[in-house]
Amino acid sequence: MKLWGGRFAKQTDKLTEDFNASIAFDSRMYQQDIQGSIAHAAMLARQGILSEAERDRIIAGLEEIRQELAEGKLGFSVAAEDVHMNIETFLTAKIGDLGKKLHTARSRNDQVALDVRLYLRDEIATVRELVLALEKALLQIAAQHLETIMPGYTHLQRAQPVTLAHHLMAYFEMLRRDLGRLDDCRRRLMSLPLGSGALAATGFPLDRDFVREQLGFAEITRNSLDGVSDRDFAIEFCSWASILMMHLSRFSEEIIMWSSEEFSFLTLDDGFSTGSSIMPQKKNPDIAELVRGKTGRVYGDLITLLTLMKGLPLAYNKDMQEDKEALFDAIDTVKKCLLVFTPMLLTSQFNVDRMARAARGGFTNATDLADYLVNQGLPFRDAHEVVGRVVRYCIDNHLSLDELDLAKFKEFSPLIGADIYPYIDVKACVARRRIPGGPAPETVQAALAEAGQWLRRVEDEG
User: Fold this and answer.
1) Residue 254 has pLDDT above 80, yes or no
2) Catalytic status, residue 276
């Protein structure tokens, strides 16, 4: 008989039972469900609702169930619907009718709200470490390429020279913001919903603060209706995951381009590449492509939750059972992507010479030629027009700026002197951009030092 079956005159139809059950996916929360139940039992005894002997038997039974589940000695049942009722069924079978007392003063509504929060808290800790590992990898690689010149792009056209270190540190900054958002998400997650009951709390004298302390929450929810029907924390995590995946996807796009023959900026390690079933010469950037592709999957998880919640009246509705698969999928996908992305990046080889050659092409030093003329007193707009004509001449004659002789330069502007050549050298172009946030090696070195200090601080904060 169902634990809620007293109201019903006939058995649940098998189709309804299968359709209604969530154990196939929420079973992964059994650790958190038992953790919450142990804290609840301890509080019930503290309040005199259970005796100490009853508490001890219940907790011992739950601990045994946790061990047996971890060892694969127990199997979940669809007939028990979900992880909560499965564990209660196991407990009653193990310690008798006393197991039925555990659910005093709580509902599956506040129980599941607790379990999902506990589960997400644990997963956020894991995801946070994976983001930090990628941040460390970026710092490690950037430190090796402070002097590696490469073209910076706008509109995927060569624009101005930068360094590879500076380019990589742009992704570090994206991930720094991601980590801040993740910590914000975790902070808002840390409200204990247990005690909200089905929707209207309970008449039993519960000590919610005791349970909060036992489970490590920062506060208790302030409204029982909101406590059972809130899934903002799950939506916020999926929103966070979507932004993170967008950043990984942008990075993946560049890795894919850079590893192509057309760019040849980067060579992926064989361990993080695949081949073709028909073309023996192929080496494909499948990992980066899959990260790029899985980004859409995580976006879908976010949209699933937003769509799920948008029309629900207070308080709990069965629709909310659909929150878990989307949340779990976002968690799993992000973890898998971060786990493989970091070693893929660390094992990649950057073609320094090819990057330098690319930086010298495409007139990436044209802006510096304009700046040179400004320093000679020419208004920037006039300098811009002069340099535009110089570039057009060089294109027509298959020349780069530094291949143009001084006499020809002077035909465009008498302000140009022999000192123009060292001025428009790409290394000099990068080196003079030493203001905070710029690509000059000394500036990026300082950025790396600050980033390292920040990384150590956030690691200590946990």
Assistant:
1) yes
2) yes
